[in-house]
Amino acid sequence: MDFSSFLTSLGTSFVIFVILMLLFTWLSRKPGNTVVYYPNRILKGLDPWEGGSRTRNPFAWVREAVSSSEEDVINMSGVDTAVYFVFLSTVLSILVLYGIILLPVLLPLAATEKRVYVTNSTSEGTFNELDKLSMGHVKEKSPRLWAFLIATYWVSFVTYFLLWKAYKHVSGLRAKALMSPEAKAEQFAVLVRDIPPPPEGQTIKEQVDSYFKSIYPETFYRSMVVTNNKEVNKIYEELEGYKKKLARAEAIYTKSKELGKPEGSRPSMRTGFLGLIGKEVDSIEYFNEKIKELVPKLEAAQKVTLREKQLRSALIFFNSRVAAASASQSLHAQMVDKWTVTEAPEPRQLLWSNLKVKFFERVIRQYVIYIIVALTILFYMIPIGLISALTTLDNLKKFLPFLKPIINIDAIKIVLEAYLPQIALIVFLALLPKLLLFLSKAEGIPSVSHAVRATSGKYFYFTVLNVFLGVTIGGTLFRTFKKIQKDPNSLVDLLGNGLPGNATFFLTFVALKFFVGYGLELSRLVPLIIYHLKRKYLCKTEAELKEAWAPGDFGYATRVPGDMLIITIVLCYSVIAPLIIPFGVVYFGLGWLVLRNQALKVFVPSFESYGKMWPHMHTRILASLLLFQITMLGFFGLKKFYYTPFLIPLPIISLIFVYVCWKKFYRSFHNTPLEVACHELKEVPNMEQIFRSFIPPSLNSEKADDEQFEDALSQVSRMGSFA
Amino acid sequence: MDFSSFLTSLGTSFVIFVILMLLFTWLSRKPGNTVVYYPNRILKGLDPWEGGSRTRNPFAWVREAVSSSEEDVINMSGVDTAVYFVFLSTVLSILVLYGIILLPVLLPLAATEKRVYVTNSTSEGTFNELDKLSMGHVKEKSPRLWAFLIATYWVSFVTYFLLWKAYKHVSGLRAKALMSPEAKAEQFAVLVRDIPPPPEGQTIKEQVDSYFKSIYPETFYRSMVVTNNKEVNKIYEELEGYKKKLARAEAIYTKSKELGKPEGSRPSMRTGFLGLIGKEVDSIEYFNEKIKELVPKLEAAQKVTLREKQLRSALIFFNSRVAAASASQSLHAQMVDKWTVTEAPEPRQLLWSNLKVKFFERVIRQYVIYIIVALTILFYMIPIGLISALTTLDNLKKFLPFLKPIINIDAIKIVLEAYLPQIALIVFLALLPKLLLFLSKAEGIPSVSHAVRATSGKYFYFTVLNVFLGVTIGGTLFRTFKKIQKDPNSLVDLLGNGLPGNATFFLTFVALKFFVGYGLELSRLVPLIIYHLKRKYLCKTEAELKEAWAPGDFGYATRVPGDMLIITIVLCYSVIAPLIIPFGVVYFGLGWLVLRNQALKVFVPSFESYGKMWPHMHTRILASLLLFQITMLGFFGLKKFYYTPFLIPLPIISLIFVYVCWKKFYRSFHNTPLEVACHELKEVPNMEQIFRSFIPPSLNSEKADDEQFEDALSQVSRMGSFA
């Protein structure tokens, strides 16, 4: 790719972004679109345009985003979102600090190096204007390499310093949220799994109650045995479906009264397959009948489930936060694979069907899935390598000669050259996350947030290995194929050789991601169109409409690995081709602004894990740093720089840093520290309400009496606390 | 070594053992020796000869040992000793099961192999009668190797099965001891380290009290801040020294009255250096004066220590076992390196000076010491290798030709050949444990039992690496030196080559250890002689006499690695030279008998860790098994057996077995499970007594009032529990 096609790519991306931003300014001012652009505010019961949002100034949202405080983010979107912003701003400051030193020092050093003869045979003929600004342009054994070596140290230590500060800050955020005086249901509960078979003549519920009453005579409140809800869920969903359909039929009937005849036309339907065949009936009557039929059926199924389908897992409720926090960290049974107790996740993020998975089954599932994921990563490596090699224009012409006439048109040529490989890559990557989330859930993880973290981790390794290493090695392999055949090089050499040549590919990739990606994010064009289509042709009732504009959450499972890929790319190229740093700064700066807007106004988080995502992100940034350090070792070696061994301490320091952070901070992200849990509550917690919040909707009786919960959901303890 | 010298070695060892056993029978019947042969019974206040021990039957002790139950051992010597016997009996049954299959099958298979020509060049000329019974005698690619391969599987699975059973059994023993209805002081306390600096105007004690009162308003009883006792200990020891000397002087005076003049002769002494120079004074008066001087000085020092020398560490007492067990497992502070809480060890095994060591300092110390130990192991490797190579008689003659005339005398030759290398080895090994114990304590470990386990672990790796591998590789290197020079082999090949040649060396080593070692152990000749010498020439008072016969404890730090070395040797040779199995059986059988006697009558354990040694032993047996499996892989490879890859699953199964055991059992050895801690006590615990049992003797005031403990040792909490 030459310089002009690079500028074209950058230019068109920027134009698209400006257009999308103007569209956003125009569209978000229309009252009919508030539910698309301000759903979070609306759901929180706030005025969407409070604070003068409705101006014609296309940068008004920027001002609002910048002026919002961390407190605002936590109030509007929770701790997890605030932690994500700590991540964004930390990376942003890391990159800014890189740039301040590296750009003014390294770029002139590289550009002013006089090369009479290109000695590096692998990059022969591929050098262009951009490559002159990179370390690849510096001669072998040149004393100028000292500056690059010191830059490597600067990059490492800036990263350590800011990550340490960020970890402390996040740790404080988490503690503050956990010690909040508001009672949160999950802070009073623990999850027990691997309950041994109950003794003869006892139900699991009785066994659980007597076990925990004997250990916690004063703080045990009540237990809720997990049941196999498959059947009751089926009936419940059927019932809910009929209720929705009834509401829809009634809405149609009401509307027909308004529009046509004053007595209205009652909607009718056929009862057979897809409403196409069978007897024609009055819809409203039919659905009412069905509901009347199902309600007692549901009640009966609930009773049966609660009594007879108890599983070997339970939620235990305590009447104080300290008791629950302490219980979740203590070993209860002599055999570690029995009565395993962990912190209870929020009710909304419990993965009920995973709770019954046994101790060693979880371990086995985990390893099996690791193997599957490893195979997936290796399997995907092949097509991505091919894509990277094939989708350069020259290769296209070579392998698909019939395309030649089209490609030779200048305009098409430039656009294709600029975007083809990147688009191929992005499309390719969109296929995987669902598979990884499914696999993560199959590990037997009990909460959604944990599954999301597990997915994010898998996806990170996937993207780094495949996209970054795949493109680099794939591209290099193709270019240096003949050379390799003669003398197969090691991976480190390959990396060192491949990196400079692929710098412009990644520059364009980053630019595409931030301009087009964040432009689409901000303008919400796709959700807007879908919403308007649904509103016009599908939705009849308020509930359906609300479902149509439900904004979704941040989607950390893919968002975080996406950001991580950018960090890895920018980090690894930071010293080799410092020109990438400004691109990284724009990516994270723009990302911060756009997502701040989305966090305050659009996305509604679907769970709260109190920042448990942070250690995950922290470790992966450091993994990228380690990759960078090892790459630099290889690259300096290739430059035949005598003082390359001076870099050897860096990976060791990184590993020590990871270890120290892990030792100092990690456990308080895994467990709730007691000094945090012991903070006073605003008022005595309503234990009944806390208990009820964990009852799955399909088991939640409308009568709200305790009688039918007697079975799997145990009674209030009559001892101690409330005596 | 030829067959006759082997038999000589065995024979003399056996004769020594018989003599020692007869000596034991004779000596232990003398009333004057009861304190040497029955100290544990005497200290427990039991009649030494209860149950007819005083017979002339030299096997009476065997009958008693066999008829004693595990319960008896726990009562007389604690859970740790009982666990040690589980270890001995498990290994014994493992070896018996090996022998039942391996001996009748493999020995004939090896012996009946017809070898016209010795193909294995490395063992050329070293084959003798014993070697014919080993796998080394089987021809390459022989189908008979199938039997040896299946034997390898048998050995592995017997080990897994019996270890699993033993782990379950020990886990039960531990739980039973921990749930005992007797209140044990350490079960009510936790150890807090890494207390952050107290806020302005607060003492550490106030800070600790308010911190734990706020977390445990109902179960917190009292705290005891650790102080820097260096100065007070010095005064206390001085005082105790004078008290002892006074008692001694008084005893001499009393005796002189009985013997000589009725008014007696008052002992006198000089006050100067070593009592040799200076003014002559009356001893009794002088010591009394000194004591009178020191008592107020001690009290003043105690007050200063308690008030001003508080360290950032404390013991926290709870009024229930569950509360303490739960607290010791919970994270208290948001920063994991602050307020770290662990289970409190027994008062008698607290290493006070280690309690102040900070979190990351402990980590650093640990790694530094690992490096030192690794260097020690490597450093010792060289001399041991030399010893093994040099102390064969032929080499002695070669290198020290002036010894030739002595060595050529037949009797001396046989004895030297039989014992020289083994004695050199045993002496060499006796030098190390003290160094390793010192290093382990320097890690910052808070309890003696933990330091002993750490020492035992280090010593195990040392013995296995140096003795076993060192002798094997050293011996082989020497023999095949020229071959190696041409073609340096890998370690596995070396092992495979070296093992058969060294089998007889280890046979003699094991025999020496059990006959002479256990003979000396049983007869207690050395302690007996020392005791009688001391009684006659040194001891004047009852206290001094009691000190002279103090029996000591089992000394697990060296005993367990010693046993482990035998296990490693027997395991590794079990299939290659099955003749070693009976030797192993005798070692552990005899060991069980002799030590059972010592446990019931002699040794007094110096600590109780409720079987925490077991996971340590379990893992190391499996490490030996893994070494065995890898050795077999190499050995079958050398035999050019096509089906060698059938052995590859074994090391993997071993690792899975280690992992599963660790997951299922380990945590309940590290922490006290709550279901165990919640068992009812016989009576309400005397908290004051529990608290007082932790006060170090130098701080223990004789006045027994609370006033002076107000400072570092906090007052009884006035809240909750006792209200």
From TrEMBL, chains A, B:
Domain CSC1/OSCA1-like N-terminal transmembrane: 5-165
Gene Ontology terms: cellular component: plasma membrane
Domain spans labelled CSC1/OSCA1-like cytosolic: 187-354
Ranges of residues in domain CSC1/OSCA1-like 7TM region: 365-636
InterPro entries linked to this entry: Csc1-like (IPR045122), CSC1/OSCA1-like_7TM (IPR003864), CSC1/OSCA1-like_cyt (IPR027815), CSC1/OSCA1-like_N (IPR032880)
Keyword terms of this UniProt record: Calcium, Ion channel, Ion transport, Membrane, Transmembrane, Transmembrane helix, Transport
Compartments reported by the entry: Membrane
Homology family: Belongs to the CSC1 (TC 1.A.17) family.
Designated name of the protein: CSC1-like protein ERD4
Organism of origin: Manihot esculenta
